[in-house]
Design brief:
Shape: elongated
Strand order of the largest sheet: 2-3-7-4-6-5
Number of strands: 9
Helix content: 40-55%
Oligomer: single chain
Order of helices and strands: EHEEEHEEEHEEHHHHHH
Number of helices: 9
Largest sheet: 6 strands, mixed, barrel
Distance between the termini: 96 Å
Number of domains: 2
Length: 310
């Protein structure tokens, strides 16, 4: 309900099934740099937290310094501050001190913006002694129900957040919506790829119908005439696929950059599977397009070629 002495952490360790406990401290502050200001919550964590790790852009764990502040890279961008510069921190609770604190590092996160400090350093800033706002737990699954019942019996506990439940809710809502959108895009991608390849092949057949019919007249089989069209189709596909992959990569970067907001940010993660699926879509579309056009080779006007004066 309210900040309490760190001694509460020792009581938390006595709860059923608790394996590890990490206390934390939170404080509402106003961060300022130049003319830019943001009201956020500073999260005071152990210097080497295992339950709530602070990661940089390369996904390496950051050790929280005792005398500095680590903020979201997006928050630093909004404030216009760089690592090594001093931020004005105005505490909005308790004794309301105002201090200059060095920006010691940037964290990479994907929802909202945040600021982190070593818990002992935050307590020194607040000037209220060794105080905690809550704790995170690692719990033995076999004692999960007993653990929750014990928490319900503690009047000072105001809320409980279960990470596994949060993940499941995300998968059943946001992730499911993203998956549906991906499937829709995949269907459109197949249709567009098929249409483009089929259209180009039909145009080539229409423009070169007379030459292809001439080949049939002079003795080429339908298979050999079709090989001419297929070879052209393969060459065009081999030229188009690398260019398409480069263009698609650039388009993905541009789209994610456009949605890189203070509220949510999405990482660009491209794997060999992404590129393999894109190439597979083009190959499948090209194959079916080629087969559809090759079936029309029997409609070549062989009689018209024989009657031609040249």
């Amino acid at each position: 309900m309210e900040p309490a002495s760190q001694n509460v952490a020792y009581l938390f360790r006595q709860l059923p099934g608790v394996i590890t406990v990490e206390p934390f401290r939170t404080a509402f502050v106003r961060l300022s740099f130049g003319h830019q200001k943001r009201q956020i919550v500073i999260q005071g964590l152990p210097a080497r937290s295992l339950h709530n790790r602070v990661l940089n852009e390369t996904s390496h764990v950051l050790d929280l310094p005792s005398d500095g502040l680590v903020v979201s890279a997006k928050l630093a961008e909004l404030l216009g501050a760089r690592v090594g510069e001093d931020l004005v921190v105005e505490v909005l609770e308790g004794k309301r001190p105002t201090r200059l604190i060095r920006l010691a590092g940037l964290a990479e996160d994907f929802a909202g913006v945040a600021a982190y400090m070593d818990m002992n350093g935050l307590n020194r800033l607040l000037g209220e002694g060794d105080i905690i706002s809550g704790a995170s737990f690692r719990v033995d699954g076999s004692s999960w129900n007993e653990f929750l019942l014990a928490l319900k019996g503690i009047p000072r506990v105001s809320w409980v957040a279960i990470k596994e439940s949060l993940r499941e809710n995300f998968r059943s809502t946001t992730a499911a919506s993203i998956g549906l959108i991906q499937k829709i895009y995949m269907v459109f991608a197949v249709i567009v790829a098929f249409g483009v390849v089929y259209n180009n092949t039909r145009i080539s057949l229409a423009e070169r119908g007379r030459e292809l019919a001439t080949l049939r007249v002079i003795g080429f089989s339908r298979f050999e005439v079709g090989a001419v069209l297929v070879t052209e189709l393969v060459i065009l596909a081999l030229m188009a696929v690398p260019l398409g992959l480069l263009f698609g990569t650039g388009l993905a970067k541009a789209i994610l950059h456009a949605v890189n907001t203070e509220t949510v940010r999405l990482p660009l993660i491209l794997t060999t599977n992404n590129y393999a699926v894109a190439v597979l879509v083009v190959l499948v579309a090209s194959t079916f397009s080629g087969l559809s056009v090759l079936r029309k080779l029997h409609q070549l006007d062989l009689v018209g070629v024989l009657k031609a004066p040249e």
